C-alpha cells in the first residue's frame, strides 16, 4: 500500500496549500457586509428588550438533553433568563414546518448546516456578525469551523458542539505490546505499519458500512478524509460546493487511493463483502476480541458508545486513539473532518443575544463535558472538564488541527449527499462500477 502521488496530484495539493495561505482565516464580514450588501448594521444592546424567556429547539433528548440543561443552569441563574428547550427527533422537518408557519423558536440548534441554509436563504435567520463579536469567536474556535456555517459571505450559525471523525482507534494493550507506532506522521508511514501487521499474521483494518437504508455513508467519510489530505481544504470546498465537478480528476484519483486501501488483499477483515454487510456499529468489536481480529478502525468519537461494556468501563486502559495522518505530498497540515451543532438565531432581542453569546463561548458545556458525550468546538475550552483521558486526547487532536472541515456529504444536496453518493459507494466497493463510472454518474445526477 505504499502509494505515492502523481506529479499532477502533488502540484494540486501544493496549489491548494498556497491558496489557503493566501486566503488565511475567515474574514470578518462586518466591514463590507460580506455579501456585497453594504455595511452590517450591528445590534445594540437595549434596542429590543426580551421577555425573560428564550425558546430553543434541538434534535437531542434523553441524557444529552439533561446534560445540556445542566450546562445552562448557572447562566439562567446569573442572567435571570429562563430557557425553554424542546427536543424533537424529527428536527429537520419540524424546524422547516414551524419556521414556514411563522412559529420558529427563538434559537434552533442545527445538527447539519443544510436546513439552516434553506431558512437563511429565506431571510429567517440573523447572521451572527450582527450580534456577536465575529473576530473574537473565530479566534477561539478550531480553524475553519465557521466555514460550515457560511453562505454567500455571511455566517448564520455559531458552533456549540462538535464531532470529530478523523480518528483511528486501536486495542491499546495488543497494539503497543506488538510495538506498532502510535504517532505515524503520514498515511504512507501508516501503510508501512499495516504491512508489518500483515507480515505478523494480523489483519490491519476492520470496517463496516451497514446501516439499512443509509448503507454507504461510512464510505463517503473515507473519500472526504482523503480529499482533505491529498488535495487540501480549498479543493475540498470546491468539490463539496460543486465549483468543480464530482468527476474531476482529483476526486477520481482519491477513489483510486481509497480503493488501494479498502480493496487491497488482506487489508480489511473479511474483505469487501464484509464491509458492505457489517453494521458500522459492529466494526470496532473485532479490535477487542482476545486476541484481536483486527488492529485499527476509522470512525468518529461517537463510536466509543458501541465498544463492549467492559471496554467502555475502562477505556483509558483498553483503548488507544490517534488522528488519521496527513498525506505525504498533499496538504501541509493536519486536517480534521467532523460535524457539529450550529446555534442559529430567529428572534433578535437582548435575551436571545445573551443566550447566543453564552452558547457560542468557550465557557459553555462544562457540565456536559463532565457527563460525557460532548466536545467543545473551541481550542480554548478547559479540557480538564472532560470525564476521561480518551476524550481529552480526542479534544486535543481536534484543537491542534490546522483546519476543520464539515462532513462533505452533509453539505451536498440531499439527493447527492444521502442519495447517489451513498449508493455509488456501495456499487464502487462491490466492483459493480469503476471509480470513473461512479463519479460520472453522481456528477450527471447533480441537481441543477
UniProtKB/TrEMBL annotation:
Q: Which Gene3D superfamilies match?
A: Periplasmic binding protein-like II
Q: So what family is this one in?
A: Belongs to the bacterial solute-binding protein 1 family.
Q: Which UniProt keywords apply?
A: Signal, Sugar transport, Transport
Cite the PROSITE patterns for this sequence.
PROKAR_LIPOPROTEIN (PS51257), TAT (PS51318)
The identity of this protein, by name, is: ABC-type sugar transport system, periplasmic component
Give positions of region: Disordered: 26-49
Q: Where is the signal peptide?
A: 1-21
Q: Which organism was this protein described from?
A: Brachybacterium faecium (strain ATCC 43885 / DSM 4810 / JCM 11609 / LMG 19847 / NBRC 14762 / NCIMB 9860 / 6-10)
Amino acid at each position: 500500500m505504499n502509494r505515492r502521488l502523481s506529479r499532477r496530484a502533488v502540484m494540486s495539493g501544493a496549489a491548494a496549500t498556497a491558496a489557503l495561505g493566501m486566503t488565511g482565516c475567515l474574514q470578518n464580514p462586518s466591514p463590507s457586509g460580506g455579501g456585497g450588501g453594504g455595511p452590517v448594521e450591528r445590534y445594540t444592546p437595549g434596542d429590543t428588550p426580551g421577555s425573560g424567556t428564550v425558546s430553543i429547539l434541538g434534535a437531542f433528548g434523553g441524557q444529552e438533553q439533561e446534560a445540556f440543561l445542566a450546562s445552562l443552569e448557572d447562566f439562567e441563574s446569573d442572567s435571570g433568563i429562563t430557557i425553554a428547550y424542546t427536543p424533537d427527533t424529527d428536527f429537520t422537518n419540524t424546524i422547516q414546518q414551524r419556521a414556514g408557519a411563522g412559529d420558529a423558536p427563538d434559537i434552533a440548534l442545527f445538527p447539519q448546516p443544510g436546513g439552516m441554509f434553506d431558512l437563511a436563504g429565506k431571510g429567517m435567520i440573523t447572521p451572527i456578525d450582527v450580534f456577536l463579536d465575529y473576530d473574537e469567536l473565530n479566534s477561539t474556535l478550531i480553524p475553519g469551523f465557521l466555514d460550515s456555517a457560511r453562505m454567500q459571505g455571511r455566517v448564520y450559525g455559531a458552533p456549540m458542539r462538535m464531532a470529530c471523525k478523523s480518528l483511528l482507534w486501536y486495542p491499546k494493550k495488543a497494539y503497543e505490546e506488538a510495538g506498532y507506532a502510535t504517532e505515524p506522521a503520514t498515511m504512507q508511514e501508516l501503510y508501512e505499519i499495516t504491512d508489518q501487521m500483515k507480515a505478523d499474521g494480523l489483519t490491519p483494518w476492520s470496517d463496516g458500512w451497514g446501516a439499512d437504508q443509509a448503507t454507504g455513508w461510512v464510505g463517503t467519510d473515507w473519500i472526504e478524509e482523503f480529499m482533505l489530505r491529498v488535495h487540501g481544504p480549498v479543493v475540498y470546498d470546491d468539490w463539496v460546493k460543486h465549483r468543480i465537478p464530482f468527476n474531476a480528476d482529483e476526486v477520481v484519483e482519491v477513489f483510486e487511493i481509497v480503493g488501494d486501501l479498502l480493496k487491497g488483499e488482506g487489508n480489511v477483515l473479511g474483505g469487501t463483502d464484509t464491509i458492505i454487510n457489517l453494521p458500522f456499529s459492529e466494526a470496532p468489536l473485532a479490535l477487542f476480541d482476545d486476541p484481536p481480529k483486527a488492529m485499527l478502525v476509522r470512525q468518529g468519537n461517537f463510536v466509543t458508545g458501541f465498544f463492549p461494556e467492559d471496554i467502555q468501563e475502562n477505556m483509558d486502559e483498553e483503548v488507544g486513539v490517534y488522528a488519521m495522518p496527513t498525506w505525504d505530498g498533499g496538504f501541509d497540515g493536519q486536517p480534521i473532518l467532523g460535524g457539529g451543532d450550529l446555534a442559529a438565531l430567529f428572534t433578535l432581542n437582548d435575551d436571545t443575544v445573551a443566550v447566543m453569546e453564552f452558547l457560542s463561548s468557550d465557557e459553555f458545556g462544562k457540565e456536559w463535558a463532565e457527563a460525557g458525550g460532548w466536545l467543545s468546538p473551541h481550542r480554548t475550552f478547559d479540557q480538564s472538564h472532560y470525564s476521561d483521558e480518551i476524550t481529552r486526547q480526542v479534544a486535543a487532536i481536534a484543537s491542534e488541527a490546522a483546519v476543520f472541515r464539515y462532513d462533505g456529504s452533509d453539505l451536498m444536496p440531499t439527493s447527492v449527499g444521502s442519495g447517489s453518493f451513498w449508493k455509488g459507494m456501495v456499487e464502487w466497493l462491490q466492483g459493480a462500477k469503476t471509480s470513473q463510472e461512479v463519479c460520472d454518474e453522481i456528477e450527471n445526477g447533480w441537481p441543477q
